[in-house]
TrEMBL record:
Residues in Longin domain copies: 6-127
Coiled-coil residue windows: none
Keyword Isomerase attributed: no
Species annotation: Aphanomyces invadans
Compartment list: Endoplasmic reticulum membrane; Golgi apparatus membrane
Keyword Protease among UniProt keywords: no
Domain V-SNARE coiled-coil homology: 142-202
Protein name per UniProt: Longin domain-containing protein
One Pfam family in the UniProt entry: Synaptobrevin
Record-annotated membrane-spanning stretches: 204-222
Amino acid sequence: MPILTFIARVSDGMLLVASMESAGDYNDNLDTYKQQGKQIMKKLNQRSPGKCSIDSGAYAFHYLIEDGVCYLTLSDKNYPKRLVFLYLEDIHAGFIDELRRDHGDNWRDTVTTVARPYAFIKFDKYIQKKRKEYTDPSSSQNMSKLNNDLADIHNVMRQNIQEVLNRGEAIDRVSQISSNIADRSKEFKWGAKKLSLQAMYQKYGPLVAIALFVVLVIYFKFF
C-alpha cells in the first residue's frame, strides 16, 4: 500500500503537500524514509525521467512528473508496480482538478510562484481517501483497475536509493569544481592582462619618456 505521499515542485524541490500513513511496522523507520523522499525531490530537475522507481530496503519509492510537479510515494517493494503508478496518476488528476477549482486557468502560475511549503496541505484529505482505495491490491476494485490499465510500465527506470543520492552528491561536487575553475580562469585572465600591460610598459615606456623629453626641450627652446 502507499505509505507516504509527497507532492513537490520540480524546479526547487519545495514540498507542496505531504501525506503519510500513521500506523504499521514501518513507523520505526518512517523518519528515515521521509528524509530520503525529500532528498529525492531535491535532486530532480527538468531532465529527470518522467517515471521512476527507486528501491530502498524492503520498500520502494515511485514517482511521476507532470507539468513541473512531482508526485512521489513509498510502498512495499512487492506492491504491484502498475497499481502504484495508477495511484500516482489518480493523485495527479485530483491535484490538478483542485487547483483548477481554486485558481482557474492560472493554476500553473500559482504552483510556480507559491513561496510557502505545504501550501496545498488541504489536499491531504483526497490523498488519504485514495490511499484507502489502494490499500489492498487484491480488492475487486483494484483488480479491475489493473485489468483495464493498458499502460506499459516495463520501461520505467528502476534505481537504488544510494545510487540516486550518491549521484546527486557527485553532481554537486562537479558543479563546485566547475565554479572553482571558472573563478580561477577569471583570475588567470586578469593576471595575464596585468603581465601584458607590464611588458608593454617595459618595452615602450623608455621610448615614450624620451619622446616627451624631446618635446619639452623643443618647447622651452623655441617658445
